[in-house]
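Supplementary Text 2. Reproducibility record for the structural model of the 351-residue chain.

All settings were left at their defaults, and a single model was retained for analysis rather than an ensemble. We include the record here because the model underlies the residue-level annotations in Supplementary Table 4.
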Amino acid sequence: MKQKLLGLTLDELKAICLEEGLPAFTAKQICQWLYRKRVVSFSAMTNLSLKTRALLDEKYEIGAVPFFKYAQSKDGTKKYLFEVSEGNFIEAVMIPDKDRKTLCVSSQAGCRMNCRFCMTGRQGFHGNLDTAQILSQFFYIAEAEDLTNAVFMGMGEPLDNLDNVLRAIEVLTSDWGCGWSPKRITVSSIGVNKAVKGEAKSPLERFLDESRAHLAISLHNPFHPERLVLMPSEAAFPLEETLRIIRRYDFTGQRRVSFEYIMFRNLSDTPTHAEALVSLLKGLECRVNLIRFHDIGDTEYIPSDMKAVERFQQILGAAGITATLRASRGQDIEAACGMLSGKEKNNKTNK
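Retained model, structure tokens:
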């Protein structure tokens, strides 16, 4: 199997050039073609000699994954479908808003976390995306040149695939890569707060230490027993420990931490829940993004009515916590929060 070049750092490309007997400056040229011009073939790298292009083509591949198809919402949101391996599909969502174009990126095919209100969780886990598959969502869509922000809030748990997510962020934010500011990137997680075997730090700690991107925590309920029902991962990664880790870090500067909070009628939207959330977040510089539940079918959960949402928001605001209601985008094409499922996979399976 050929080695993929998409997702490699400048130093790694230099090492390959040295191994192949190519000048060191060739690595910079390859970086430009991969990360600025986003070519999909070595033949397009026209400032490399024909001999060099032939050598690269024989031993390596770029690793580009073009989108399979897309759907467009009446509100302008576009959902792109990518086939990342035979029969396995992932989705990325481009959300336009005035002068901004935000890409909602997937990091896994499926997800291990099994949140009860999420279509991705229902399909189970089908594998981590490699860095090339993550970056392909940025580079090979129609809006690639116009993207202003990225949120790792698509399919999968980003901190469950941390090495590849960090590598993608490095490519996006490095001078030799895309040159983005880390402030343009937010990574969302349920809070993977336990170290894997052989590691000194948890994925959450590693992310906070090794990147400057913003963090968003999927919270959804302040009470352990109730959160456990909604999010079985609460058993392995309790919210209490996630918050303990977060409080060790500084979020008073340019880096932000926010909390995603889905509003379920009578399950998470009462004044009691709001007051408990205020107590939980007391003293933490943060914001809360309120999200009305998007009905995914075959579930007992019901979206909160707007009066309950407004009352909840007022309680948080009175306590000094900034709380915003996130507008639902792309719901008509199943592109809204919690609705990504890689449906082409299911369609192919059913044929």
